[in-house]
Amino acid sequence: MIENGAKKAWVVSAIMGLGHTRAAYPLRDIAFENIIVEGSREFCQPDKYRIWHRLANMYYLLSRATGISIIGTYALVALQKIPPYYPLRDLSEPTLAVKYLNFLIRKHKLGSTLVEKVKADSMPVISTFYATAMAIEIAGIKPNDNYLLICDADINRVWVPLNPRESTIKYLAPCTQVKRRLLSYGVPEKNIYLVGFPLPKENIGDGKTLNVIKNDLFGRLVRLDPANKFFRIHGKDVLGFLEKDAIPRQRDDFFVLSFTVGGAGAQVEMAEKILKSLRDKIKQGKIKINLSAGVQKPVLTRFHEYIKALGLNEFVGNGINIIYDENVYAYMDKFDQMLRTTDVLWTKPSELSFYCGLGIPILLAPAVGTHEEYNATWLQEIHAGVKPAGPLEYTNEWLFDLRENGRLAEAAWDGFLKARKMGTYRIEELIATGQCTQSDSPLE
């Protein structure tokens, strides 16, 4: 826990979807005042708000897969395209996207409101979106305290400034792949901290014992292994790692699926087919389902329409729960609490990919954008992500087969073992002392 009087930092998100805010929210204990949302109407000057709003609209339109202008499409593709990692080569040459971002900052003063707010003090700044870190560097302030938190398992060149070898931006990397990518973009190794993605403390527990993760994961593994196929192989390791005495013989006859819709409302239509397929299982008490609508009122409305049309109204609150709040932070509190009893998280591979570190298997919805495709690849490489084994219409069959054969339990266990989970604590340590523990083990 952060003690009173401990060193604080400016924690800065942006209006580019929920992901950047979700990355910032676990750092609220060290945030000076409140988390800043750059580009929001409450924070920006009107002319800067218009620029941010146009950028955000393009991101949202892409996420909804609707038509946008040819120029806008090209710009977004340029912002998202990530070159193949192999062959190993120098990728430090700035791209058009980097040059355009530099133009927006220098000529249109993108990020200038933030610069004016933070320039007068000595507190560090932690940004979760590249443009704000670039704006701070171009302004010539915070040369030793400008941190940029990466939100994906691989990144476009736009996350790195024009002259990376001369830059003083310090990168907070969620995984080894990001560190390797930053090095290929020309970032000096001394400016990269391999800390992990910041996950909610409420879902981790004590930073030394991981007591909450361990207790929640053990219950999850028991519910995900009704036939004992997972425990037959991994039981001794599980009991040792999670500090448990024995595996219960009695197993719950149900498990909990959480389906989340992206911040832009992407993929809401999937929920109707999933609910329709699982309708009988819900009625039988074989599965409970959480539907996460985020802060999108239209998504909430659609969920209620689907539930009513399928004759499932009586199960709302008892078999079906909807996670929604118009306030983004209240929503995230509800979402984090929901995760503690979630057995399977069905989501597009956004920043939520890193939540596999909590020991939650990720069922992969279609990716939106190149960065999410790389997130999905990363999840599958560490065996924490599972592709749907069949069409949505037959979720009632293949999802239960994945549970029965122990595949979901394996994914939960692999995510816990292989994905870093101490990001929040490591970043707090870095801000407090100027250095932090960096280990090859994701468990440390």
Number of domains: 2
Largest sheet: 6 strands, parallel
> Quick one: CATH class of the largest domain?
Alpha Beta
- Assign the structural class, choosing from mainly alpha, mainly beta, alpha/beta, alpha+beta, or little secondary structure: alpha/beta
Q: Which CATH-level-2 architecture of the largest domain?
A: 3-Layer(aba) Sandwich
Bin the helical content: 40-55%
Order of helices and strands: EHEHHHHEHEEHEHHHEHEHEHEEHEHHH
CATH superfamily of the largest domain, called what? Glycogen Phosphorylase B
Rg, please? 22 Å
Q: Poorly predicted ranges (pLDDT <50, ≥5 residues)? A: 63-72
CATH topology of the largest domain: Rossmann fold
Number of DSSP-assigned strands: 12
- Work out the strand percent: 5-15%
Tally of contiguous helical segments: 17
Spatial ordering of strands, largest sheet = 2-1-3-4-5-6
In whole angstroms, the N-to-C terminal distance is: 17 Å
User: Which of globular, elongated, flat, extended, rod-shaped describes the shape?
Assistant: globular
Overall residue-averaged pLDDT value: 91
Question: What topology does this entry show?
Answer:
Elements: E1 10-14, H1 18-24, E2 36-38, H2 46-63, H3 70-80, H4 96-107, H5 112-118, E3 125-127, H6 130-138, E4 146-149, E5 170-173, H7 176-184, E6 192-194, H8 201-204, H9 211-223, H10 229-242, E7 255-260, H11 269-283, E8 287-294, H12 297-309, E9 320-324, H13 328-339, E10 344-347, E11 362-364, H14 370-381, E12 385-386, H15 395-404, H16 407-418, H17 423-433
Parallel strand pairs: 1-2, 1-3, 3-4, 4-5, 5-6, 7-8, 7-10, 8-9, 10-11, 11-12
